[in-house]
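Input (GAF and ANTAR domain-containing protein):
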Amino acid sequence: MDVVRSAAVGDGWFPPLDAAAEALQDLYRVLNPAGHIEKYLNRLCKHAVELIEDADMAGVTVLDEEGAASTAARTSREVVMVDELQYRSWEGPCIEAAESEQIVVADRKTASGRWPGLASEARRFGVQSFLSIPLPALEPGARAGAVNVYGSRADGFARSEVALMNLFTTAAGYAIGSTERYRGARQLALQLERALDSRAVIDQAKGVLMAVHGVDADGAFAMLVETSQRTNTKVRVVAEELLASVRIT
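Output:
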């Protein structure tokens, strides 16, 4: 009976996919929910240039809640210059990819026809071909941005390069989404924990005031609130200071 051996990374069955798999493994190693996403995005750009033979530079465009665009990561200063040309005119591959959530690819001829101003200005920075891949939205309906790859060749990017970059960006983007969801859940858990701790401290302080002043729970809380407003201090801090004074005495 013939046995089919599973391909492993580095076996060389299809070198571009092997390289993409290795790049993704490297990205996952640096992806830290407690760290800064910029490090991950900059590493993503570096790998994009290494993976795509015709790529000379790469960057990541992100859209904020108001829809304004900015460059979150890049392999060179020229990336920012080409991106800014698109942000100012609000046209070009990175804008179209981010807004439409569709892949945008253009060689020199296509770019000159679709965005003549951008194509002409971008050539000053050595860019003649464009490839923008939308990043998966972190949540339904949200606009995340795009990974942009720029090249100096006039004939643009091969279809195989577009497919490989799409696969790589999609996998990397979903990893970001998973990390952001984990970060959000962790932050919510910490907020709930702090809220419960604050409530426990306030309840203890209310108990002290009820015993000392002979008031009910509502009256004790009103006393804490009055002190909070008068001293411009959070109720929790007022409660902590009250409990500390009781322990001292």
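The beta strands are 57-63, 69-74, 104-106, 129-134, 145-151.
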